[in-house]
Amino acid sequence: MARWELGKFDECLDLAGIKDTRLRKSYRACFKLALKTDWTMAMAGAFLPPHRRPAMAAVGAVVRWVDDLADHRKGNVARFSEETQELLAEVRSGHSAHPVRAAIVHSIAAFALPVPSLERFVATTRADIGRTEFATEAELSEFARHAVGAPVLLGCPLLGGPVDDPAFDQAVLSFGEGLDRVDNLRDLSEDLARGWLGISRETLDNCAADPADLKNRRATPEVLQALRCEADRAAALLAGADMVAAGLPAYGKAAIDTMQSLYRLHLQTVTEDLPAVLRRRPRPRTASLKRLAVSSLGSMAGAIPQPRTEAAPLCPPIAAPNAPEQSDNVRHWASHRAISAELRRCCEQSQDGVLAAIQSHALLPVGKLLRPVLTVEGAGAVGGEPAMVVPAAVSTELVHVASLINDDIIDGDDQRRGRDSAPARFGVDLALLAANGLFMKALQGLSRCREQGVSAERLNQAFNDAGQTGEDLTRGVALELSITDDLTCPVDTYLEMIKLKTAVLFAYASRLGAYLVDGGNDQVKALSAYGLALGMAFQIRDDLLPYDSTSEAAGKDASSDLRNRRPTLPILLAYAHATPHQQDELHALWNDTDHERALPALHRVLQSTQAMVRARNLATTYGEQAQSHLEQLPDTPHRTRLRHLVRQATQRIN
User: Fold this and answer.
1) Domain residue limits, the chain
2) Between 483 and which of 14, 21, 317, 489 could a Cys-Cys bridge form, CB atoms 3.0 to 4.6 Å apart?
3) What digits encode the pLDDT tens for the residues 464-482?
């Protein structure tokens, strides 16, 4: 299961045919719960077909839910049993109204996941409540096989695993035991702190190790020997992944191979400094992560082949210029589908090792792709062939994502839309290089339009335009940094900043496609003005989200303005129209380190100064400007879709 951004998880739900609103909410809850697990395990699930990923999220969620339930019910086995029996009863009935368990029950029924595996996992976890150690190796083995192996077996049908194959099942359970033993070593310092021994008494006795030395974290030769014995057992069990992978299709094999590689990496970090394991949880080094990423990308190429016959066009036709588009969901548009396919192809063919892994993490799964959609729809709106500009459209997304990585580096943000940001996951140095690489790939993508029949003269001008846009984006970021902590910043200065940092890329994307397909000068100018106004409305909407009643649903952190020390439009409007007393209050709230306490009072000031109303009105004005510029284009389905994007950008603020 990949750690997708929450907003993009809906695409997988659509592909899985999950339409019921309450069930979708349950799957989203499962997704968020599953994200609490070790992020490295997310890499394996990325190989699954998208329509299976929601079910894999549900499998991850049930594991986390049962584990959390056991942790919360220590000493209360009866309560744990009651709640887990409710789950099992719901599984047998095929229905649940529980906000999390509904998706779990649905996944088990939809994919015929093995219920006995879930039952074994629950029973094993229940028996472990209150346990502090294992007397024998047999006890530890039995526990590990069902505490971890059973959940892996539960999800195996999603990997394409066989049904009712005893030999395969035993191989999976043994592999799961290996995973658990590695985790026992990685978590040893934390387990010792809570009085739990992850190594059996039998192993300690065989190595003449005193349990008291282990409990007190003394790295005696005997204790270290016991750790080495445990590591050797884990390594042997991990090798059994080969037997599991042999019974799976390509994508399932790639997932298991990646999981095996991850845990071998974890085991390597353990064995390289055994005494340190007694004191802290080891972390993989960057060099090890690079080797892992290269291996994973190699597996992905074989797991999800995207063959292209020589006779097939590089970018197949998207749709006839006047083909109707019934859906208001951008993700259902033909332009979005074509861009998504090209973006995935770009990621799959990359040979940049760890940098490619970082770029794929930032780019995939795809979102609404607003900027590239503007390019493709703009080309169609002036009567051109949209497929000609798909590579150029993808280049706008590469620039956008590269700028987001740079933003996260500058702001020190650990999260980007519900998951680890690129610098948080891979380190600032590698993230910076990956962003630079995306900028270069954007230029390469633009040049590929020559293969689609775009003239050299048009491409040359497009490169010049791209360079100017990049310079504007850089100036916008610099201007944003200059107004940090400045509540007195004039509103006009702020509007200039968001124009440079956000709106100019919308304008560039909007005119790019039209220009490349030889659109008329007036039409290109109209689309550029449309994109600029749309970008302004879009950014103001984003500024309003923390204070909008629907901000929770949007997933925007309401304290982000205070935490980043960057005043946004509502705050600047409030300060500009505030009384001296209100300005003093704003300064106090801005400097309050308790953001949660400051937010309600800040919201009251924004309301009392009419800042919210003023910002909404300004965004509406920009939206109306965008719509007016479209009047210069012929009435086509492409123009209709461009109008829809304006409504989408402003509907959350009206």
Assistant:
1) 6-302, 330-653
2) 489
3) 999 999 999 999 999 999 9
